[in-house]
# Entry
Amino acid sequence: MPEGPEVETIRRTLSPHLEGRTIAAVTVLTPGQIRHPDAATFIAALEGQRITGLDRRGKYLVFHVGGRLLVCHLRMSGRLYLAPAGMPLEPHTHVVFHLEGGQELRYVDPRKFGGFHLAGPGGEGLPPGFLRLGPDPIAAPLDPAALAAALRGRRAPIKALLLDQRVVAGIGNIYADEVLHRARIHPLRPAGSLAPAEVEALHRAIGEVLALAVARRGTTFSLYRDGEGRAGDMYAELQVFDRTGEPCRTCGTPIVKIAVAGRGTHLCPACQPPPPGTQAPERRPRPRGRRALVE
DNA sequence: CGTATGCCCTGCGCGC
DNA sequence: TGCGCGCAGGGCATAC
# Structure
């Protein structure tokens, strides 16, 4: 599941191979992965165009091609990598960009959650969320006052806001858990209830966790690979994610898994004390039906 | 507006 | 051992 650090790693590994190259042809094997415009228009608009830059905003990869923006989101299982022309396509290959000179940029995505948006000359057709992205802590340090302002008065669990790309761009489920553990904050704490010192700890943790993840070239949890096919080394550094039942590396208490905002959430119950009135909910089943009204 | 829920889709882990 | 069920989850639409 590529998050900001993984997408940044893909960007860094692809960029030297792609910048200045021309797209000779495009093969779309699964039209549904072309979100905008339709596949035929997409192909016609890209063929013969030059890639002038490769950028990243949050979890979106942004190709500058022929003066337009080609935006790609990998979601859960998307991969983007270079291969020699003619190498057999692996299963679930949906799009192939044939580059002049013989290499191919391939898009593979078993779950088909990800895809491409090619913006028009005026910028129309971009993904809705792309236009509302908040500050990107991998690109520039977060402004602590802006973070505090974004949390003020909010009753949603702090983890839900860390996952909200309008608040901070690039954090996904793995790094949300890691950030909260480092900041010693329970994921169910209402965002607006954090004391100033806690917001400061959160701000610091966001910067540190993401910087370490980028330095380790991302987390290879299941299938993630960078643009050159290499795995990342961040998995070994994870403190809580995917460590249910294993001892906290700080205090030895077994890591616990709960559900927050519909997401699997890992935490240390000792390092991250629950908010008052919460008794460590163990994955409560989703509420079915509505409670009867009695007068 | 802020918050909550369901959907998309397929591989894989778990239980029997 | 083999099989089948259900979970996993980012962003978006929709509901309240």
